Amino acid sequence: MYDLDFSPPESLTLSLWRSLLVNFADRFAPERLPPLELTSQPVDVGVLEGDVLSMPWYRTVFTNIGDVISPERQPPLQLTSRPIDVGELPSDELSHGWWDSLLQNIRDRVAPEKLPALQLTAKPIAAFGAEANLQLLDWSNLIAGPKVFLADAPQDVHGGSSEALPAPIAAAAAEVAPADPVLLATRSQLVRDIGRTRFRRKIWISLATAEAIFLLVAIFKFT
């Protein structure tokens, strides 16, 4: 067996000037190689398919008549392999009637085939380095930033206007650090992608609806 090397040739990694100099050297001072000596002998493969297709029709007619009258006698085919019982093929199963499938399902349900116990030789591998369970953290635990717990907005019970926020809550909101520009850019990109997805969905739904209406009109009109 030979070690196959599918890596690109070294000429692809050459620089432009080096490749240009190599081409000039091959052009003006080519390498002198010894003459090619063929040690193999040609094998008679008969008439090629291209030559058969290029033959005139009268030659193929006489060839076909000769093959019918006196065909070439070949030695009998000898099979050295033994057939293996693979059971019933899927095509044969599909060709049975529905009653055969019903009886087979009832037989498998009442008296299922007893198979030997499965022997597992491989040991389970802990995924992601977890030994027992895989823990999923909340987004609030993954995002680094100050956490501010604001109180609920005051409800207007008597129908009047709501008052301003209390001083501690306003101070806590003012002390919040400015958002990360990377997070803001990611959020804006996500909102933009969601908007484009909704727009494309509306277009596809409208096209499918128009096509369905056209098909219904064509069916009722031409029938």
Question: What's the short version?
Answer:
The chain is an all-alpha fold and 223 residues long. Helices cover 47% and strands 0% of the residues.
Beta-strand segment tally: 0
State the distance separating the first and last CA atoms. Answer: 68 Å
Oligomer: single chain
Q: Summarize the main sheet.
A: none
Q: Could you say which structural class the secondary elements and strand pairing correspond to? A: mainly alpha
What percentage of the residues does DSSP assign to strands (E)? under 5%
Per the principal axes of the C-alpha atoms, what is the gross shape? extended
Order of helices and strands: HHHHHHHH
Top keywords for this entry?
223 residues; mainly alpha; 8 helices; extended
How would you describe the overall organization of this protein?
With 223 residues, the protein is mainly alpha-helical. It has a domain at 179-223. The chain has helices at residues 16-28, 49-54, 57-69, 90-95, 98-110, 139-142, 167-174, 181-222.
